[in-house]
Amino acid sequence: MQKVPRYLEKLTPVEEAVKAIMEAVKPVAEEELVDTWTAVGRVLSRDVVAAYDFPPRPRSAYDGYAVRSGDTPGRLRLLGEATIGRVDVEYRVEPGTAVYVSTGAYLPDGADTVVPEEKARRENGYIIVEKHYPPGKNLDPVGAYARRGQVLLPKGYVVTMLDAVGLLDVAVTRIYVYRRVRLAMILTGNEIFELRNPMEAEERVLRGEVVESTGRLIEWAIRRYTPWVEVLGRVLLPDDVDTIAWYVTRQFRNADVIVMTGGSGPSTVDTFYQLAERLGGRVLFRGLYVKGGRPTSALKLDKGPLLIVLSGHPISALHGFVRVLYPVLKYLGNVVRAAEPPAFAYAVLEEGGEYKRPQPVKVKLILRDGVLYAKPLPGERQLSSVTVSNVEADGIALVEGRRYNAGERVPVIVYREPSTG
Amino acid sequence: MQKVPRYLEKLTPVEEAVKAIMEAVKPVAEEELVDTWTAVGRVLSRDVVAAYDFPPRPRSAYDGYAVRSGDTPGRLRLLGEATIGRVDVEYRVEPGTAVYVSTGAYLPDGADTVVPEEKARRENGYIIVEKHYPPGKNLDPVGAYARRGQVLLPKGYVVTMLDAVGLLDVAVTRIYVYRRVRLAMILTGNEIFELRNPMEAEERVLRGEVVESTGRLIEWAIRRYTPWVEVLGRVLLPDDVDTIAWYVTRQFRNADVIVMTGGSGPSTVDTFYQLAERLGGRVLFRGLYVKGGRPTSALKLDKGPLLIVLSGHPISALHGFVRVLYPVLKYLGNVVRAAEPPAFAYAVLEEGGEYKRPQPVKVKLILRDGVLYAKPLPGERQLSSVTVSNVEADGIALVEGRRYNAGERVPVIVYREPSTG
């Protein structure tokens, strides 16, 4: 029988743990120039600066008629149409004439104002304009949306889908971004297996084996919340230090971070220390001062990647992700401001409680008059390692280690539409 | 020059528009049996019911020693180890003996209680237990997580990643779900082009052409918020009714919904009516009573798909998505409760304002003491068709057509991490 190692003796507080990692690793430095769609989810390595005044020529802000202000009011001959996307404006608005323009179309030369379509009457190839339109009316002047040299999106920001749409509109088609943070996943545990054959899997679970789900959940969280990270690979391995070490040194040596699940519990073979000894590395911390994710640990390999170990239990691993891995991936990726973080919604606690350590708390969510309320599941279900209680919950609140009163606000990972009333 | 059709004469209120569509179409009826990972994002077509009591045998809730209650306190001979995932427990706990168990492991026969590892002393193949442990202590009894027949997740719920993890833990490996809603996208506009060559694209945008971004944004929103929808295809077409009709009838005839962007504005060729006439269909509504997304319209083709037209402008199209397409896709997909909806975070308005119609308002988001505040961008930037103002904003608030006072709460699509303080 194997020697059972001693229990984790010192648990490191979250802030200290994150700080220890940040001191041991450096953010990604390499940058690349990519097209604007490819930049979505990536981190800007330089400010995005407008290269031009945009629009470069005045643009109509309405569907209507481009005319000369001096001609209004009046009866004007309609020359034709200058719709958005016309490469060249074919018409010149001479005195006494008008050109139909659609919203966003460049104004034809000669015109200096726009009469909205519904304000003019049409009559046999002419339009009748009843009142005076001053120059510059109903149009966007040169530089209305962007001025040459203006910072459109600052360095360190994650480019969101909406940013990309906005930048393309003002002719920003290429963007400098940091290369993605390279991450690999090693999921360990003799008892885990990948779901391939559902019927066989059912039997195996009933017999005591476990479908690998922790790694899947963490990979999902990485793709969802840290799109600037590239998942190089994801492998299931038995609790065997030789095999794990081989993977670390032969397969994933170019990763910035290796995330390992399992292998760090108090009573399993302590893969963690053995790896540190075998590969030459520095233990940054060993065990996190939290409830749910206590085995979370970190190791910096000499001339090798950072190794972060998360709990083998899904909810506890997710807690480790939110508390440690997420801030570390932001740091490695040079992120100043991300897209939606995992827990940006705040909910009002419907019940107080005493929490000894930072912990994830499964909650039912209720939306009432625009306020989100969170009702913690009964104690033993808040953090059950068997996670069926997820289906009773809609989110995971993140509490700190202290007493909470009903009515206090807590950040929540919302994974289901809250119920109402 | 083309005949310019008259302006939209009647705008339909949002609720009426959604109702008109729901009356014209039927939700998906077909179901399929898929594995639990595949079910993520899909809609349950039946309740998920536990087929077994789970765990089927008592499981240890701690790393510790499985013993007989009657033997405690006492000195017990350690027989070996029964770790999680062992297919068969090899040891039987006879009087005077103990077996090491890890958290989640099935209890060996004979044992009826668990002594946590740190509460026992180990001594030459024996353990010393100092106090009495009653039967059932530190273990999860049969059926603790799921009872045979129990509804684990009800019909109509979207299966979230966390649900899947929980269900796999109790041996639910196959799930009945509705087939996905089939959606195709037709993006129209003579002026739009797909971003392929960034340098050339920059020049073309400066000359007045437009990079296709509305369809990309809507496709992103569909994948993000309605994962039960399958995007069959996405095609750019010129403003040509014949071509569009060919696509509708030849390529996308099996879609449940065709989403078209552009082609429904007041002054372009009215593709919409022409399609209805050509293909035989019923106009459900033509123009939405909103600001930003006014051209939103719907058409039910005879024996053909539902056609929903969104604005050609990205933010307006997104508004149409949130107000009309999202509820319709929920209805078509049989969704009772979705995962995170597009706008479940509510923010406190920092400034009041008068809004004539329902409208998207770009906002800066600030998080202070767990309360999210939204500061609307200056009037002309709230809904600019040129969307560079997105980069000044972090979210899009959805307001109704009425006066708002500072301090009122509004739902927000959050697309960037809120700033603090």
Automatic annotation (TrEMBL), chains A, B:
Recorded hits in CDD domains, A to Z, give: MoeA
Tell me the GO molecular function terms.
molybdopterin molybdotransferase activity
One Pfam family of this chain:
MoeA_N
Query: Is Metal-binding among this UniProt entry's keywords?
Result: no
Q: What pathway annotation does it carry? A: Cofactor biosynthesis; molybdopterin biosynthesis
* UniProt keyword Ribonucleoprotein, yes or no: no
Enumerate the UniProt keywords alphabetically. Answer: Molybdenum cofactor biosynthesis
Q: Which residues form the MoaB/Mog domain?
A: 184-331
A GO BP entry is: Mo-molybdopterin cofactor biosynthetic process
PANTHER family assigned: MOLYBDOPTERIN BIOSYNTHESIS PROTEIN, MOLYBDOPTERIN BIOSYNTHESIS PROTEIN MJ0666-RELATED
UniProt-recorded name of the protein = Molybdopterin biosynthesis protein
Species: Hyperthermus butylicus (strain DSM 5456 / JCM 9403 / PLM1-5)
